[in-house]
Automatic annotation (TrEMBL):
Residues 11-22 have a biased composition (Polar residues). InterPro entries: KH_dom-like_a/b (IPR015946), OsmC/Ohr_fam (IPR003718), OsmC/Ohrsf (IPR036102). It comes from Gelidibacter salicanalis. This is OsmC family protein. Residues 11-39 are annotated as: Disordered.
Length: 140
């Protein structure tokens, strides 16, 4: 195994989970579902993992290409099935780039390389969901 994560019950609906980096995070559910809303939700964390994985690729590739951006954000949406177990059937990842005179061709190439070649989380998502991506350029 390459990764080991320990997730420890902290009472009620709260869990603390570690990471190979040594950092920890709290997992909880909503008050309506019996939790205290004090932590991250498991399914939503999957969307964060998807965006984080692809985002790390994109900024690394843009740095190698010497492409300047002033800001970068990803909005990630997941649509759940109606029946239990509820899983994401469709996911959208919107890449938003901000800057002056953005090099749209190189930015698109960086995003495409992440989506098609480098992002392992994206590849996993493609096995169970339709993944739609879009790029939005915000020139200052």
């Amino acid at each position: 195994m390459d990764h080991k994560v320990i997730t420890h019950w902290k009472g009620n609906s709260q869990f603390e989970s570690d990471n190979p980096s040594g950092k920890t995070l709290l997992i909880d559910t909503s008050e309506e579902d019996g939790g205290h809303n004090s932590g991250l939700r498991p399914k939503a964390m999957m969307l964060s993992a998807l965006a984080g994985c692809s985002g790390l690729d994109v900024v690394s590739i843009l740095k190698k290409m010497k492409v300047e951006i002033s800001d970068f954000r990803m909005d990630t949406y997941g649509e759940l099935t109606e029946e239990h177990p509820k899983t994401y059937h469709t996911v959208a990842v919107e890449y938003h780039f901000y800057g002056t005179d953005l090099n749209e061709d190189k930015i698109k190439k960086a995003v495409d390389l992440s989506i098609e070649k480098y992002c392992g989380v994206m590849e996993m998502f493609k096995k169970f969901a339709k993944v739609n991506t879009s790029i939005h350029y915000h020139n200052n």
